[in-house]
Design a protein that fits this description.
- The chain has 438 residues and is mostly beta strands.
- The protein is 8% helix and 47% strand.
- It is built from four helices and 29 strands.
- It has helices at 297-307, 319-328, 386-389, 427-437; strands at residues 4-13, 18-24, 37-43, 51-58, 62-69, 77-86, 94-100, 108-113, 122-129, 139-144, 150-157, 168-175, 184-193, 201-207, 217-224, 233-241, 247-257, 263-272, 281-283, 286-295, 312-313, 333-334, 355-361, 364-370, 376-383, 398-403, 406-411, 416-418, 423-425.
- It has a six-stranded mixed sheet, with no helix packed on it.
- The chain is globular, with a radius of gyration of 25 Å.
- The model has no long low-confidence stretch (mean pLDDT 82).
Length: 438
């Protein structure tokens, strides 16, 4: 499965409007030895000046985020940054990182070639900057000329003439529709930014296609459909406001433009829903939770049941899932009787009246036998309930039913017919109702 971490981090921006913050990621499902990419954007309710975000450092269990507002405003203002970390592109998407040559008071663009998509992709992008000039400036990113097989990544300084920017790169993620492993949805929003609104925020409300159980994370990136980098201008900044379970406001501010008095700006957006309850970690369509303390195998099963009626001690589905469980907690119990694969350590095998736990060896995370009364850490595992979490794709006029291997959608008959994901009124039923009223 796709290993993805996601989160929302609160910032309290002081009078200098610049702040960096380190986010710890306990029980990270990412691999320590693999490269990590980060995508992020700002959620700033009631912003009157444009906020920018960049990544200073990203590892498997730690993320350093920085935010800056375009000019000084009120003190002790709260805003949030929604973010996601991952190794590889989710199925159906493409990802990468582009190094930007040193630049100053101008916009710099670099063309990115991708394998041809069937439809014009959404592109999300975030700046990586290990050192920001003077500690007070920021670099903003936007996208231009998006086609089926390429796009331009453009960066520009947030303030005029702040000097030469070095050590800048851009993480990008291109995709069409929903991302595998990320419950949620995506889309684009169009803005017409007139010359009278330059440097002011323009916002639009976007309604989700479904109601989520909790507020999803929303990540946004602006892009132009026309070539504009030869125009002297400050970058467009985009952010979200008022994210709810039903939708969000997408806002864009074009800080300065001297050659296009009015222009079309579009915003690519991705909503990332939480398929698992708070405190649980998602992987392979399963939710996982680490239990505090050390417990016998029989007690571990009872504890998992108290957390969730469908919960059980973890069962590894494959090697990646097995390694993920082994990284969540030290030497956790594992159920091997129902596993589709085997990964015993040297000299170990399944035996009656003997339980197993995961330990590390030269072969990675392997299974080792132990007395069931001994004490080990516990990782509980439960199927995702897409219906209650709002991460299903059933139509608004359909009923979602949770099943052992997913969920089922059924149109609300007899008034509606269809396959569950698309439902329409049954015209025969409508006519019958009209006849009965005569």
């Amino acid at each position: 499965g796709n290993l993805i971490e996601r989160g929302r981090t609160e910032f309290v921006v002081s009078s200098d409007n610049h702040l960096c913050q380190v986010v710890q990621i306990p029980h990270s499902q990412l691999y320590p030895h693999k490269d990590v990419r980060a995508i992020a954007s700002v959620n700033d309710n009631g912003a009157t000046v444009a906020p920018a975000v960049w990544i200073k450092r990203a590892t498997y269990n730690e993320l350093e985020l920085c935010v800056r507002r375009q000019r000084m405003e009120r003190t002790h203002h709260k805003l949030h940054v929604d973010w996601m970390l991952y190794h590889n592109a989710p199925v159906g998407s493409q990802t990468g990182s582009v190094t930007i040559s040193p630049f100053g008071a101008r916009t710099v663009c670099q063309k990115v070639l991708v394998q041809r998509f069937g439809k014009t992709p959404n592109v999300l992008a975030t700046v990586n900057a290990t050192a920001v000039l003077g500690g007070y400036d920021a670099v903003a990113v936007f996208v231009e000329d998006v086609s089926l097989s390429s796009f331009q990544l453009c960066v520009s300084e947030l303030r005029m003439y702040s000097g030469i920017h070095r050590n800048v790169s851009v993480n990008w993620l291109a995709f069409v529709g929903e991302l595998d492993g990320l419950a949620g949805e995506s889309g684009t929003i169009g803005f017409f930014v007139s010359s009278s609104r330059i440097a002011f925020a323009t916002c639009k409300w976007q309604t989700f296609s479904k109601v989520y159980a909790t507020r999803p994370r929303v990540i946004v990136t602006p892009y132009f459909s026309i070539r504009s980098r030869f125009c002297y201008h400050r970058p467009p900044i985009t952010w979200t406001e008022n994210v709810t379970r039903h939708g969000f406001s997408s806002c864009v501010a074009h800080l300065l433009a001297l050659c296009y008095p009015s222009r079309i700006v579009r915003v690519s957006w991705l909503a990332i829903a939480e398929a698992c309850p708070a405190g649980w970690v998602q992987l392979n369509g399963q939710c996982h939770k680490v239990v505090d303390g050390c417990h016998s195998f029989s007690d571990a099963g009872l504890i998992c049941k108290t957390l969730n009626a469908k919960s059980r001690v973890a069962v590894a589905q494959d090697y990646a899932h097995n390694a993920f469980i082994g990284r969540l907690a030290p030497r956790p119990w594992i159920v091997v009787r129902h596993s589709a694969f085997s990964h015993f350590g040297v000299g170990q095998r399944a035996r009656d009246s003997v339980c197993q736990f995961i330990t590390t060896s030269a072969r990675g995370h392997v299974w080792q036998n132990d007395n069931c009364l001994n004490c080990h850490s516990v990782v509980c595992q439960a199927d995702i309930d897409e219906c209650s979490s709002g991460t299903h794709n059933c139509h608004a006029n359909a009923t979602c039913t949770d099943t052992a291997d997913g969920f089922q959608c059924r149109c609300n008959g007899p008034a509606f017919v269809g396959n569950g994901t698309h439902c329409s009124e049954d015209q025969f039923y409508v006519c019958l109702l009209k006849i009965r009223k005569l």
